Amino acid sequence: MSVNTDHVVIATEDADVTGTPKTSSSTDVEKRFLDLLEGQKVLVRLGQIADQPPAWYDPAKFQRGQEFFRRNFAGIFLAHLLSLITLLSSPQILKPLIFTQRSETTWKAFRRYISTVVHVSCWYKGDVWRKGDPARNSIQMVRNKHNGLARSMNTPDKWNCVNSVNMSNCGDPLIPSGAAPLIDAIKQDTHNQPACPYITFRKGNKMDSTEEYMFFNQYDMVETQFAFVGVALLFPLKFGAYGTTDDDLRGFIHFWRCIGHLMGIEDRFNFCNEDDVDFTRNLSAFYLDKMIKPAFQTLSIEYEHMARAVATGARYYHPGITYESLFVFNAYVIGVEVAKTLSQLTYAQWFHYLYMRFIFSFICWIPGAMWCLSALFRFTISLVVDRPRWWPSTWNPPTVDGLASFWNYNPKTVKAIST
Length: 419
Description:
By secondary structure, the chain is an all-alpha fold. Helix content is 55%, strand content 3%. The chain has one domain (32-407).
């Protein structure tokens, strides 16, 4: 994936799956990105979610996006996991997470990610516009948490506390004893990567207190939207989503446009604006090259700690996962050369990295393979959220309470509300 000085060019890997891609003027894409950056000065919308869908809501597209997810459950959630770990490279996302003290240990990160899996799965299969629907209730719960944190963290005393968090707030170290931080190798691999030319409100790994910046702003939500949309949109083949069409991706974009709207993103800041597959793909490529890849040069030790917490937490339900294998797989997906980082992997980490490539790049070509993989993943999550009584005690991952009603919600049909 690359961005040249004249056009945003889509990787040919996806062209034979999603059709012949069009190019968008880099000027148009950059202008849209700069418009999104203005959202750093605008707080996310607070309060209750909207009672009615917006005028642009299209139930057919929304359901198409849900169907795309259901067909590719395992691959899309791997894309979500990789992107959410990468999102931690953003200080304005990382610092509130550290401050809340809900993700800094393996167990806490495990509970948080399982909760994310369950809630997002509920959105993908429910009716977010119907009052009383579990999917809508789930979104309101998440938005309520954002409301409370946005109000508290942006008071003058709390803002400075959030901005000043560091490793002392992260608990016991998660880097293996005697091992060097992986970020040392990552920075060596990416030292020639051009720096990000856009973010002016960061000073190292802190927010500039002289700038008009607030946590949980519209741009922070846009970054989170990209984490759920961008990588899966750009590289469906690398996550086993074979047979993907532009209509599938248009529905996927529209789905996350709706979720962003419900989460308090104003339409002018919505990353998925207009449901335009080509433009959103090009905007994602631009964001990847201009924001994500340059961030590898400035990764902090706090980032590595929190990313390791997520990865090691995932081992409760997938024993082979490591932070190292996930990072190099993500680098393979987005096209970053990480030879030095690869040399730091153990044989077991190499095996898991190659295993993921083999499963999603080759096995998923087999008809029914993605369905089987997704069914296995769903069952594993069920053991964590709502373990059946008949399950033997041979392998019992720790359970997470309070999520069963969202996870087990499985309507036979998703009701569409006409605008």
